[in-house]
Amino acid sequence: MLPMFFWAFVVGGVICVIGQLLFDVAKLTPGHTLSLLVVLGAVLDGFGLYEPLADFAGAGATVPITNFGNTLVHGALQEADQHGLIGVLTGMFEVTSSGISAAIVFAFIGALLFKPKG
Amino acid sequence: MGNNNQTQKEKQYQSLEKKYETKRPVLKNCLKAFLVGGLFCLVGQAITYFYIYFFNFTEQTAGNPTVATMVFISMLLTGFGVYDHIGQFAGAGSAVPVTGFGNAVISAAIEHRTEGFVLGVGGNMFKLAGSVILFGVFSAFIVALIKTLLIQWGVI
Predict the structure, then answer these.
(1) Candidates B70, B80, B109; nearest CB to A107
(2) Closest chain A C-alpha to B144 CA, distance in angstroms
(3) What is the pLDDT of residues B128-141, one digit of tens each?
(4) Which residues pair with B97 in a beta bridge?
(5) Do B37 and A17 touch (CB under 8 A)?
(6) DSSP A65-111
(7) How confident is the model at residue A118 (pLDDT cuts 50, 70, 90)?
(8) pTM (2 d.p.)
(9) Which of A60, A86, B44, B51 allows an S-S link to A11, with CB 3.0 to 4.6 Å?
């Protein structure tokens, strides 16, 4: 259990450092950086490399935004396995739904509860 | 002649600009991003174990409720104005974890509530996070399509 915490910290930290380098060295905007990381996650899962990383680092791989691309591909492939090509579309959000629904639901609750500052 | 002068002045100005431009402290920024980003993942790992031990999720499926919980935490931090301060300190360390995605959606929702709930909150919610969803979904579509075709053709 303890090594899992350690590797979650290290791997998650390293992914954030990659993001920071894209900010500072490649001079990308946050929007470009995050989009790039999501695409990276999707491609990594396409090659079957993301799941081993998640097994190894736990939340270090599932909390960064790269996991969003990973879960999208995952859901699409899972469904495509059963229903063929059409499954790529129908299964896209199968695994990812929690992140998106949570973002929408909590954003609306947040907008109801909080007033904009400054 | 005048043109030449101009370029010389431009060159002078550019060297001057370079001299006074604040250098980005890349190493320091990376260290901050590493620590804060790692910390977010550490919290995520704790939440993952919480779901595994108390709600019978497996290591593979516990990622989903973890992400939802992190977005919930992000809502509270954004609403109370704490996430902005973390973001100023940590840069990518707060933007790259899923809490940063949550923050982008939630801050846009809160910011535009004065324009009404339908046109303001509803219309602007994905103003910042929309690009992440678009490129995530599109790249995932391409990747999954290629892989499915390759599997069907028996290549892999």
Answers:
(1) B109
(2) 6
(3) 889 999 999 999 99
(4) A64
(5) yes
(6) THHHHHHHHHHHHHHHHHHGGGHHHHTTTTTTHHHHHHHHHHHHHHH
(7) low
(8) 0.86
(9) A60
Question: pLDDT by residue (tens digit) across B60-107?
Answer: 888 889 999 999 999 999 999 899 899 888 888 899 999 999 999 999
Enter the tokens of residue B7: 């370029």
What is chain B's length?
Answer: 156
Beta strands in A6-115 (DSSP E): none
Residue B148 amino acid letter: T
Q: Please state the domain extents for chain A.
A: 2-113
The token pair at A59 is: 């939340």
The 3-class SS string of chain B reads CHHHHHHHHHHHHHHHHHHHCCCCCHHHHHHHHHHHHHHHHHHHHHHHHHHHHHHCCCCCCCHHHHHHHHHHHHHHHHHCCHHHHHHHHHCHHHHCEHHHHHHHHHHHHHHCHHHCHHHHHHHHCCCCCHHHHHHHHHHHHHHHHHHHHHHHCCCC
> From the list A19, A64, A68, which residue is nearest B136 (CB)?
A68
